[in-house]
Fold this sequence. Notes:
Chain A is α/β, with parallel strands linked by helices.
Amino acid sequence: MKRLFVKGNEAVAMGAIEAGCRYYFGYPITPQSDIPEYIAREIPKVGGVFIQAESEIASINMLLGASASGARAMTSSSSPGISLKQEGISYMSGSELPGLIVNICRSGPGLGGIDASQADYFQSVKGGGHGGYRIIVLAPDSVQEMYDLTMLAFDLSDRYRVPALLLADAVIGQVKEALVPHPYVAPADLPSKEWAVAGKQGRSDQRIVKSLYLGDGELEAHNWRLHAKYEELKKHEVRFEAYQTEDADFVVTAFGSAARIAKSAVMMAREAGLKVGLLRPVTLFPFPEQALSELADRGIPMLCVELNTGQMVDDVRLAVKCRVDVAFYGRAPGAGSLPTPEEIFKQIQKNMAAKL
Amino acid sequence: MTTQYKQVFGRPESLKDVATHFCPGCHHGTIHRLCAEAMDALDIQQRTIGVASVGCSVFLYGYFDIDVVEAPHGRAPAVATGVKRVRKDDVVFTYQGDGDLAAIGTAEIIHAANRGEAITVIFVNNTTYGMTGGQMAPTTLPQQRTSTSPTGRDVANDGYPIRMAELLAGLEGVAYSTRVAVDSPQHIIAAGKAIHHAFDCQVKSGGFSFVEVLSTCPTNWGMDALKANARVASEMIPYFPLGVFKDAACAEEGA
């Protein structure tokens, strides 16, 4: 297999084009601009369309229009730009439109900085816009996963007609490492988009893509139907990596770049003879509640590591239902705030000592 | 000897056979009909996609027998851009009110026009926010009383009504920009021709076409239908002059 040395952001762009995405709409913002730059150069070669829109708001609404027309389409941005897209994501959710949104998260709040951050976790997994909805959230921890999960995001989004968000950060977006690109193979059972507008073309039925429901009981029924889809996602689409958890008596939980650093700390712990494992959610929604609950059944205390002041830890604690202690080690985003493996290893030792 | 009858007037194919929800004296019904007549005449109903906006006209799909996408408030030109780039051979139009197009959606309309997106925009200017109950719009006339300009629009505080058709005509990407009214039979005939021409521009030359239609909102103006209709000529047309402000790419067609 050919190995390429590429940036995480480029891997997203490569994966998207390989997965048949032919429409990209975006607006420049650090640290994700490699994605539009790559796509602006490459997508015309395969007959695709790149539009640099006037704003993040326009970008997400162009995505809404392209998706409503049945095309695989995407946008990408970074935290402040993703805030602007929340209106459109809510409308896409209400209109049951698929589509890929990439957030190469930077630090905040406000203008914050351009450093890696995981502070958009809540915004991503709890429904960042108005009205009560969920979107599919995938959290890659490597350049390879940037490529693979971009493809998966399109498939899941098309299958469930739920927007998908790829949540990475400045580290995963900017790091260069080996990528083994592979051809995209569409799942054979992916449903066709018979709901997409196309001009009636002699059809007797009219196709309407909308989120307004004013009739008695219509909107409530619509909301419960959306809820049922989110339950299906929870049932069928949870993905996580369990690293050395089988014999572990202490487990670190972390996602994305924090999980990469935490894994090194887990390896250090193993070398020191400590039975430590790592549980890394790959899907942040749906969240691996069951896997965490099973660890709690075994009485395993945990340490949640994040590049923020504590967000995913809430969901870990909900999953274990107070049966085990869940400690937290977080670093608020900002220049020089990335934790080292040694720092996390110390946290593991401290928390294990308190338990033993 | 039998008499041969020929139907000379009927419901356009592109309109559904339903009663509209619009208030008595509102011009939306007339404007809907003119759009449908243009679709019929150009034989494009089966390949037209509408983009509905937020306001009284959101129920577009209830009246037009075509495929429709509903856009967030002000975003119809961006949604239409996405639709048109995918469905290049289809005819795509937005139908937007003045709050939608000239306030919250100003960026989207300016840039869709400037890109020269091959779409048609029907802009209904009734100088107020209809659906939300008659608040001040970007097109509300100086001194006009609304629920949020209770003593009349004060230009020192609120600025001036925006003339969108003239503003867009200044952009390179625009093929056709015009302002019409539907307050009299002559104006309705001229408006019908303009809307037909706007769709034709898109079909024939793939240009961005814009038709501003001066319209009534009797309920929120606090007038009966006749007085509201009369206000179009007495107050609106003097500030928003009718005319063609640009007809570049489609000049040979004639409006």
